[in-house]
Amino acid sequence: MASPLYSCFFFCATVFLFCTFAKAIQAQPSALLLTIVNNCPFTIYPAIQPNAGQPVLEKGGFALQTLTHRSFPAPTAHWSGRIWARTGCTYSNAQFYCATGDCGHRIECNGLGGATPMTLAQFSLHHGGEQDLSSYEVSLVDGFNLPMTVTPHEGKGVCPVVGCRANLLATCPNELQLRSPAGNGPVVGCKSGCGAFGTDELCCRNHYNSPETCKASSYSEFFKQACPATFTYAHDSPSLMHDCSSPRELKAFFFVLLLRYCWDGSGAAGGQSLSADRFSVVLLFMGKIFSSSLPVAFGLLTKVPARRSLKITTYHGLLFVR
């Protein structure tokens, strides 16, 4: 029969080991999913670039069909990087190319950055010790190519949905517009002031690379007025980066405002001139469908007179009216 002293020692050792094991389990970061959702009416090519020294996730890029999503586990240790969507992508003559966000003409970016302009989300996962913080923000510092939001699920603390829901391609100033094809093609991106003009002041380089000298410009204010919860220049307010404790999932949504049209039930070919009072229009926004007559819809959205003849052009499922 064991002595009382031995029994007491065995009990204390068991409790100590149990508490140590429980603390170790608690200290491990919770499982975290990253999900990219394509609510656009066309295929996009998401790209993922890690910061220096971090692993590449999902080979750095892939195709994502319309109205689908892709989820993958985040690293269990600290990871930081950025996610964006490439648009207007084609594959011809054994060459892959995207009108926006292109990463060296390849589908799998494998750590390469993207060509601006592009809307992007920046993440810093599993930091803050036992708090297990995941930080996230949406940035227009490199310009805009698609509306984008980041939505956390089941996190603790202040975990807001952030991003830019506005279609800035429709309101982009002429001097910031990226068109594809160049010249008379539709607007596929909206450049930052830095991307358009490349000056040290607009790019916050050299003398201007500090919070005291890097200031908002009229170009960054264009983005800020449309999407106030986004970063719009390099030293924008740090409060726009949000820290969420132990979220189960972080979702990056890409979407567009889509105008779909029909004419006497027969449809319309791109490039035809058609009378505005002959159409109905369906607005698809974030998965919600709204219906209106075309004169009313365009009267609200673009102030087009109700009986004006409209030039209809399509690009990757988007409707452009001239």
UniProtKB/TrEMBL annotation:
Coiled-coil residue windows: none
Q: Where is the signal peptide?
A: 1-27
Superkingdom as given in the UniProt entry: Eukaryota
**Assigned keywords, A-Z:** Signal
Q: What is this protein called?
A: Osmotin-like protein
